[in-house]
Every structure is written in C-alpha cells, then in structure tokens.
C-alpha cells in the first residue's frame, strides 16, 4: 500500500502566516491533485501550546531564529506559530480534506519540539504514525508539504529509519531555506530515499489517437 503524508499545510506556514514558507501555497493545488492516487492519505498538524519552548517569545533576551540548547537538544527559536485552536494552526482551507484518513498532531509537549510526523526531536515519544501505517500494510511513503528543510525532511528521515520505501515529492514541498533543503535532499538520498517530481506519479490519461 502507498501512503501520502501531507506535512503541516497550515495557515501559519502559508503566505501571511507567522512563520510563512516562501510560496508555501503553491504546493496545495498539487497535493490536491495527487491525493486520489494513493491508498491512504495522512496529514500532520503542528499543534503547540502557547508556552511552547520553541517560541522565542517564551525566552528572555532571545530573538526568533536564535539557536539555543533546549533540554540537551539544539533548538531554533521560532516566532509563535500553530498555537492550538487558533486560525494559524488550521489546515489551509484550500487543502482538500475528504481523503485524509487521520491527522497526526505534534509539538504538544512544551519542553521539546517535534518536526517529524513520527517522533519528537529527541525520539523520546512516538506519535503512533509508524504503527498506524503498518496496520494499513503501507510499504511506500510519499511525502509533501511544509517546510521542506524541517518537518518534511525530519519525517522523511524517520520514515527511512522505520524501514519504509520513502519518496519526497520535491515540487510539492517548499523550504524555509533553499540551501538547507539541498542538504536535506542529499541526506535523504544517502539514506536510501528517492527525490521525485509530481509528474512522476500523476498517471496521465492516454491521449486519443
Ligand atoms: C516547522 C518550524 C517549526 C515545519 C514546524 O512544519 O517545518 N518548522 N515548526
Ligand atoms: Zn512548530
């Protein structure tokens, strides 16, 4: 079975949001078009309490994008984003949701960030996503969404480590930093993942002769 993971397609990561990914909205028509081609569609949702320690606002004398040590793990400090039950945390209204089987919420523990859809950044706690996918006999995972160099990247690495055949749909992702996304893609390839384009999986109807 082939699963499609839609990573954090939420208002705060879209143009006008508090942690907007450049051209983040461009992925939406593509992922909408791709969804019916999969056996299972799962979405993730960054879902932080207001006191989350990945927010610069919860530290004194720190700015957004500073890097700190948070409980032994390097942590980039972000602007407040995807606060639980706020419009910024909602999935985009442009995103088709009828085919989404389940939504994995992550980043709820204020003491640790959670980029991957599978685990927090310390790999201390699972979200249950790997078990859910295995229960549905998923072997192939296709990943798209935001941000390409953070949550998409960490989800892909964990998918590979969990033993799934992993495909990153490059044109259905957008990164915060193109340079970091290049490095991320190289690491995904080095770990056995594949970088593909949406064209590679859209099954085109044969044209009439
Ligand atoms: C993300 C930074 C902080 C992401 C989430 O979805 O890539 N990035 N929280
Ligand atoms: Zn976050």
Automatic annotation (TrEMBL):
The keyword Hydrolase applies. Pathway: Cofactor biosynthesis; nicotinate biosynthesis; nicotinate from nicotinamide: step 1/1. Residues 3-199 form the Isochorismatase-like domain. It holds the Pfam family Isochorismatase. Coiled coil: none annotated. Belongs to the isochorismatase family. This is Nicotinamidase. It comes from Pontibacter arcticus.
């Amino acid at each position: 079975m082939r699963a499609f993971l839609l990573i954090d397609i939420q208002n705060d990561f879209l143009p006008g949001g508090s942690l907007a990914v450049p051209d983040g909205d461009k992925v939406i028509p593509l992922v909408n078009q791709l969804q019916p081609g999969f056996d299972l569609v799962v979405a993730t949702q960054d879902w932080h309490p207001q006191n989350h320690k990945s927010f610069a606002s919860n530290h004194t004398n720190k700015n957004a994008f500073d890097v700190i040590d948070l409980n032994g793990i390097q942590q980039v400090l972000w602007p407040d984003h995807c606060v639980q039950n706020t419009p910024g945390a909602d999935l985009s209204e442009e995103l088709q949701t009828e085919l989404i089987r389940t939504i994995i919420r992550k980043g709820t523990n204020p003491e640790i960030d959670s980029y991957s859809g599978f685990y927090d950044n310390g790999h201390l706690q699972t979200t249950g996503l790997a078990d859910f996918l295995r229960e549905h006999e998923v072997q192939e995972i296709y990943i798209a969404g935001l941000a390409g160099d953070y949550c998409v990247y960490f989800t892909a690495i964990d998918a590979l480590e969990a033993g799934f055949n992993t495909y990153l749909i490059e044109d259905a992702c957008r990164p915060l930093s193109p340079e970091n996304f290049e490095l991320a893609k190289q690491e995904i390839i080095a770990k056995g993942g594949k970088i593909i384009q949406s064209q590679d999986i859209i099954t085109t109807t044969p044209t009439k002769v």
